[in-house]
Amino acid sequence: QKRENIRSLTMSGHVGFESLPDQLVNRSIQQGFCFNILCVGETGIGKSTLIDTLFNTNFEDHESSHFCPHVRLKAQTYELQESNVRLKLTIVNTVGFGDQINKEESYQPIVDYIDAQFEAYLQEELKIKRSLFNYHDSRVHACLYFISPTGHSLKTLDLLAMKSLDSKVNIIPVIAKADAISKTELQKFKIKLMSELVSNGVQIYQFPTDDETVAKINASMNGHLPFAVVGSMDEVKVGNKLVKARQYPWGVVQVENENHCDFVKLREMLICTNMEDLREQTHTRHYELYRRCKLEEMGFADVGPENKPLSLQETYEAKRHEIYGERQRKEDEMKQMFVQRVKEKEAILKEAERELQAKFEHLKRVHQEERMKLEEKRRLLEEEIISFSKKKATSEIYQNQTFMGSNLKKDKDRKNSNFM
Ligand code: GTP
Ligand code: MG
Which of 108, 195, 216, 403 yields a CA-CA distance of 20 to 30 A from 127? Predict the structure, then answer.
C-alpha cells in the first residue's frame, strides 16, 4: 500500500463544508427514494395482507388462483409520501408460487426476474449517454420469503428457492400467519429453520452491525430471525384503543403487540432502520456480483495474463483483434472450400466429357465399320451387276445369232419347197 503524502491542517475560522451532509440530505429528499420489495410465498399465505399492514394502506391486490400453469411475477409501483419524503415503492408478488408439480419451474421465474432488473440497470450503465439520475431503478432490494407455519421443517421448494436467490437478493425470511402456531412451538420452529438454513448454506440478510448507532438493536434483532408475523387491516377495540388485530372466538391477536408476534420488529428493521442498507447491499453486493459475472462472460477482465493490469480499451482492442482474426480465418476457410468444391466439380465434368468423347469415338468406329461393310456389299453388287450385264449381252448376241441361223434355215427350206 502506497503511503499518501497528506498533511492535516487546522482552519482558523468557519468555512462551511460541515453542511455537506445536510446538502446531501436535501438533494436526496428532492430526488425522492425508491424501494422495491419482492414477496415470495405460496398462494394465500398472506403476502398482500402483510404488505398492506406494513405500509398501513390498501394496495388493492387481487387474490390469485391456485391453478396457474406457471409462476408469474406481478410488479406494481406506488408513490407514497411521509412528511416531506417521497418514496416510490414497487411491490413484486409471485403469482402461483408452489402450485406447480415441477418445483424448479416455481423459482426459476423469480431468478429470471431479478436478473432481468440487474440487466436493465447494467444496460443503462453501459450506454454512452446514460441517465442514471432519473432512471427508475427496478432492482429488488428486499425479498420477503414467506414460510408456512407448519412447525415442521422447511419444504424442499423453500430451500431450493432460497438457495438460488441468496446471491442475488437480500432474503428476509418470515414465518407467515404466526397466529397459527403456539408460543413454544414457534421458538422450536425458529431454531429449526435457522439451523436448516445454515446447514444448507443459505445466506439470509443479516442486519448490519458495523454502524454503531444501530449496531446494538440490529445485533439483537438478528437473534430473532426469522420474524414470525401476523397481518391484518382489521381494527379491533382493545381497552379503549382501536388496534390492528385478528379476532378469534377465544381472543384477539394484536398485530403490533410484540408479545403476540414480530410484526413491529419486521417493520422497524425493514423500513425504519435498514432500508438504506438494503438498498446499498443490493447495489454494492448483489448487483456488483451480477455485473462482474456478466462482464467476465463478455470477455472483460481487470488483469491479463501474468496478472498485468488490463484496461477496458486494451481488452476491447484484443477482443476486436481476436474477432477480426477469427473472421479472416473463416473467410480463408470458406474461400479454400469454394476452390476445392470448384475443382471437384471440374473433375466430375472432365470425367463426363471424357466418357462422352469415348462413346462418340466408339460410335464413330461402329459407324465407319458399318459403312465399310455397306461399301463392300455395294462393290459386290456392282460387280454382280456388271457380270450380269456381260452375261446378258453375251446371251443377246447368242440369241441373235441363233435367230438369224434359223431364219436362214427357213429361207432355205422355203426355197427348197418352192423347187419341189
Ligand atoms: P395471493 O396473492 O392470492 O397469493 O394471496 P396472498 O398471499 O396475498 O394472501 P392474502 O394476503 O390475500 O391472504 C389470504 C388469506 O389469509 C386472507 O383470508 C387473509 O385474511 C388471511 N391472512 C392473511 N394474513 C394472515 C395472518 O397473519 N394470519 C391468519 N390467520 N390469516 C391471515
Ligand atoms: Mg396477494
Answer: 108
